[in-house]
Write a structure and sequence with these properties.
Layout (H helix, E strand, L loop, with lengths): L25 H14 L2 E9 L6 H14 L4 E5 L7 H4 L8 E3 L2 E3 L1 E3 L2 E5 L15 H13 L6 E7 L6 H9 L5 E6 L3 H16 L4 E12 L6 E2 L6 H8 L4 E7 L1 H9 L3 H4 L4 H23 L1
Parallel strand pairs: 1-7, 1-8, 2-6, 2-7, 8-9, 9-11
Antiparallel strand pairs: 3-4, 5-6, 9-10
Helix pairs in contact: 2-10, 4-5, 6-7
Length: 297
């Protein structure tokens, strides 16, 4: 049986959880130590953000986590989209339910991934989750402290769009974060919100690993030609204006949508297609950028 690490067994005397703060109660201190004991076992933590919904953020998060696992790494995928958890559907895990033991909840394991989502806790997938901010903050904290993630090389967090409760909670709870990947579509109405996401990260001292422009042109399933349905280049321009890396543009490929709906991860099941090769190159940059920031920190 693997020995569970705690703050008492940690040899890092500089850890912020070693000592109780003057303004926190014993209960708050115990909670903070419990959270830190979990985070200390995770080497890299990456969040996937978007300024606007419907841009393919969850698609990027799922494929990023899967690509990391395919490289032989130990990976966790945390879905904190409380009101619209889509990760279970995209991995074909809609009928899975969480199991527990005295140590806490066990994440659902899938192809080398450890997956956690509120979708696993809903009795009916059609149920609406009607919660205010404090309740969401509490549940997100439980996803980190009460789930047995174990030792991970990477934790990828799929965060709902915008700069509200869930992104703020994650950035406050996971300290430090290795960085954020920001997903947009090319048209101005979506790309303008990239500025807000980048500003959000800077306010919270979260490094921006880069911007991904999704749905950048339509790939014809018959001839393979690319048609620019949406105005192109919005994500690339704003990344340049805001002085953050532009990681690449993923075309609008019907196979990506089919993969998500059928629970088959695109970057694995369609790995030989041009779109999957583009996606893999973007993922490789995210990994390389994260490693570089880690070495320079």
């Amino acid at each position: 049986m693997e020995e569970k690490k705690t703050c008492d067994s940690c040899g890092d005397n500089s850890c912020s959880a070693k000592n109780q703060n003057k303004d926190e109660s014993p209960e708050e201190y115990a909670d903070r130590r419990k959270l830190q004991a979990t985070l200390c076992r995770i080497k890299h933590k990456i969040i996937v953000l978007s300024g606007k919904g419907g841009v393919g953020k969850s698609t990027v998060a799922v494929n990023l986590a899967t690509a990391l696992a395919l490289n032989g790494l130990s990976v966790g995928l945390l879905d904190v989209d409380i009101h619209g958890p889509s990760v279970p559907t995209m991995l074909g895990l809609e009928n899975e339910h969480l199991q527990g033991n005295p140590g806490g909840l066990l994440p659902v394991e899938f192809g080398g991934l450890k997956v956690m989502s509120l979708g696993f806790l809903l009795q009916n997938p059609d149920d609406a989750v009607i919660w205010r901010g404090p309740m969401k903050m509490s549940v997100i904290k439980q996803f980190l402290t009460d789930v047995q993630w174990g030792d991970l090389d990477y934790l990828v967090v799929d965060v709902p769009p915008g700069t509200g409760d869930e992104p703020l909670s994650i950035c406050q709870l996971i300290q430090p974060l290795d960085g954020a990947v920001i997903v947009t579509t090319p048209q101005k109405v979506a790309a303008v919100d990239v500025r807000k996401s980048i500003s959000f990260c800077r306010r919270l001292d979260v490094p921006v690993l880069g911007v991904v422009e999704n749905m950048s042109g339509f790939v014809c399933p018959k001839c393979g030609g690319v048609t620019q349905i949406l105005p192109e280049g919005g994500g690339k321009k704003i990344a340049s204006d805001m002085n953050v890396p532009f990681l690449g543009a993923i075309p609008m490929d019907p196979a990506v949508s089919r993969s998500g709906d059928s629970g088959k991860v695109f970057v694995y099941h369609e790995s030989k297609t041009p779109t999957a090769i583009i996606m893999q190159k973007i993922i490789d940059q995210i990994i390389d950028s994260d490693k570089t920031k880690k070495l320079n920190s």
